[in-house]
Design a protein that fits this description.
By secondary structure, the chain is α/β, with parallel strands linked by helices. It is built from four helices and seven strands, in the order βαβαββααβββ. A hairpin with a 6-residue loop joins β6 and β7. α1 packs across α2.
Length: about 140
């Protein structure tokens, strides 16, 4: 399904809608340009899961963990990873086994490690600075 958002707030709200459908073990695989809104969407996921912590990009830490909601949220930024081996080195399988939601920015860097049943979220800039074109596959909203 394709969605158009016209503000960061609308992008977050779409994340809230998706969070309502998420189940333990779901992987949300993001693709999109730098600054497209992947972290904003993830803030919405967190809010939709009932997480009240401030959500920030884990660019330098690789993964941020958020607990206290309906499900834990593990927010990955794989921009700096160059292979799936590096993903497994940081404990990917352990995160999957913990029964939370894994939100994976720059998922294309490790696409061979992701299972077929991931929820795919593509976010691209539209014709204005605030407009985003978001395609979600793998779940109905």
């Amino acid at each position: 399904m394709e969605f158009i958002t016209n503000s960061e707030r609308e992008t977050e709200e779409l994340g809230v809608r998706l969070a309502e459908r998420l189940e333990p073990g779901n992987v949300v695989a993001f693709t999109g340009d730098l600054g497209a809104g992947k972290t904003a969407f993830t803030r919405g996921l967190a809010r939709g899961l009932g997480i009240t912590d401030r959500v920030t990009s884990p660019t330098f830490t690789i993964v941020n963990e958020y607990e206290g909601g309906r499900l834990p949220l593990f927010h990955f930024d794989l921009y700096r990873l160059s292979s799936s081996d590096e993903l497994f080195d940081i404990g990917w399988e352990d995160y999957l086994a913990r029964g939370g939601v894994c939100a994976v920015e720059w998922s294309e860097n490790v696409s061979d490690a992701l299972e077929e049943d991931v929820i795919s979220v593509e976010i691209y800039r539209g014709e204005t600075d605030s407009r985003r074109i978001i395609t979600i596959e793998g779940v109905a909203l």
